[in-house]
Amino acid sequence: MTVRTRFAPSPTGLLHIGNARAAxxxxxxxxxxxxxxxxxxEDTDRxxxxxxxxxxxxxxxxxxxxxxxxxxxxxxxxxxxxxxxAHELLERGLAYRCYCTAEELKEMRETAMAEGRxxxxxxxxxDRDPADAPKDAPYTVRIKAxxxxxxxxxDLVQGEVRVANSELDDMIILRADGTPVYQLAVVVDDHDMxxxxxxxxxxxxxxxxRQAMIYRAMGWDxxxxxxxxxxxxxxxxxxxxxxGAQSVVEFREMGYLPEALDNYLLRLGWGHGDAxxxxxxxxxxxxxxxxxGRSPSRMDYAKLLHINGxxxxxxxxxxxxxxxxxxxxxVEGVDTGDATRARVxxxxxxxxxxxxxxxxxxxxxxxxxxxIPLPFEAKAQKLLTPENRAMLGRLxxxxxxxxxxxxxxxxxxxxxxxEENELKLGKVAQPLRAAVTGSSMSPGIDDTLLALxxxxxxxxxxxxxxx
Length: 467
Description:
Helices cover 47% and strands 10% of the residues. It is mainly alpha-helical. The chain is elongated.
C-alpha cells in the first residue's frame, strides 16, 4: 500500500497553529513512508472562502516548507460527485427522503429533551411509504444509521474507540437545496483521492463514527485514522488570543523562523527520546505515529523562543540579512542602502548570537543604518558623562591615525589607549559602544567598529565628544 495523506483546511483567513501541526504531521508521515501528501481546500462555505483566505493557507504552508505532491483539490468543484453518491444510496435503499419541516424538527428535539433523551431525529420518515410524501414539498436526504451493535474505530493514536450504534442518528447527507453536507463531502473526497491515512485533531473523532456509516454503506474501505490531541494554552485551557499568537502568520510577523516553528510543533505532542533540535531530514527519518501521545499538548512560548534562538544561530547570514533589511525598510530614520546592508552582513555573526527573534535582530541592527545624531537608550545616555565624552575625543585621534583600520589594529589601539589612561578595557569599550550604537549592548566592540567603518565611527564619536 502506498501511503497517501491529506491536509484539508477550510479557508477562513488563518492557518491556526493546531491545523499547521496537523499539516506537518501528515506531510512528515507521508515522506517517512515514501508516500504522497495532498492538499484539499474545503471551500463549500462560499461566504468565508475567499481567494485571499486560500492564499493565506498556501503562503503559510509554503513558508513552513510543507510541499504538496499533486494539484490542490477544491471541494466546491466536486458537489455534483458528492450528490451523485447521495442519490446512489437513495436508490439502493440505504438512504431516504425526509420531509420534516423546521417546526416538526424543533418539536421533536423539545420532546426528546423533556423526556430526558438526546435531542436527535427520531426517524419519522425512515420507513414510511413514499406515497405519504407531501406533493412538491422540499426534502433532505438522510442516511440510514445502523440501529444494532456498535461501531469500532482502530485509531492509530487513541487506540480502539467504540460507540453504540444507538447513539448515531440518521444524519442528513444532502440538504433541501441539493447541496451535500460536510460529512458526505469529506468521505467522498477521501475515497476518490485514495487517502490511506486520515491524520487530524481529535475534535473530529465523533465525526469519524458518522463518516464510517457512509464508507460502509458504499462498501468502501475505511482509511486508517489517527486523531491528534489538541493544543491547549499554557494554563491547560483551550488556546485563545489571551495566550498569545495562534496563527502561523502571527508567528512569522513576530520574527520566528519556519524551521523553529516546525521543530517546536513537531515536539509538541510527539517525541523521540531526548531529541529536541531536528532538521527536516531528521524529522522525516524519525517521525511516525507511534511517537504521538494521547494527552493534549500545552503551548510553551518560552520554549519556542529558545528553539528559535537555536535556529537563528544556525541560519545563513545572508538570509538573515535579507530579512533584517526588509524589516528595517519599515522603520523610520533607518537607511537601507547598500552601505547599511554591507554593515549588517558583516556584523551578522555577532548580531545573531544575541537575538531570539528576527524582530529583535532587526532592532539590534538598526543602529547600522541610522544617521547622526543617534537616538540613545537610557543606559547608553548614562554612560556618556562629560568625562567619558572627553575621553572618546582623545580616542578618536588614535583611531583616525590607525592604518590599516582592521580588527587586530582596533583591538591593539583600544588596549593601548586603556593602558595609557590607566583604565580597564571595559571603561573604554562601554562608552565607545554607547557613542557609536546608541545602546549599551552590541556585538564585540572591535567587530562593531569594523562593520561601521573608520569614517562613520569617527563621525559618531565626534558628534558625542563635541556636544
